Amino acid sequence: MGSYCTRISSDSVLPNSPVLNNIVPKTLIPDNFVDDEFLEEINKVILENIGKMSVSYKTELDRIVNEMENAAPDGYLDLMYSDYPEKNGKDVRELAMKNISSDDIKSQLEDKVHDTIDPKVEEKIADLNPIAQEGVKRTVDHSVKQMVSKAVDNAREQLEQQAATESTDALKK
Questions:
Q1: 3-state secondary structure of 73
Q2: What pTM was computed for the model?
Q3: Which residues contact residue 162 at a Cβ distance below 8 angstroms, ignoring those fewer than 6 apart?
Q4: Domain residue spans in the chain?
Q5: pLDDT tens digit string along 120-160?
Q6: 30: Cβ–Cβ under 8 A, 6 or more apart, which residues?
């Protein structure tokens, strides 16, 4: 397997349009709430962590193959080392991909984004009434979930395509 790190494109990972600008009712938010700097910070946190997915994928794939080898002649999660990669390579890749792009991983990334933006959100909504503050917070949370989910799913799709291509190329040799 080659290195996937350099091949995840930020253009195809990050959502095309800022989710916050499309969802937040303008009457709920202060002027200039969703500015370029705010979106840039969100995207930076997402990209820093999405970039690590390729390394995590390779590490997880190696871990699964190692577990299969250690369990031989028995299987690991019904995956036999003797069948790898010819018969079950696709299943092993899918399991590794599932493990690195699970809902838990998305939740951890959402938390990292919130750690970065929540203080700024609090500052921007400090003068709003409590009901409006709660509305903005919920909308920001929902938007962060959408952005993270789309970014992880897009990165996963890229990695799957790259892994399938490399696997096919390796079998041809």
A1: coil
A2: 0.71
A3: 2, 4, 7
A4: 5-51+102-168
A5: 889 888 988 889 888 888 888 888 888 888 888 888 888 88
A6: 124, 125, 127, 128
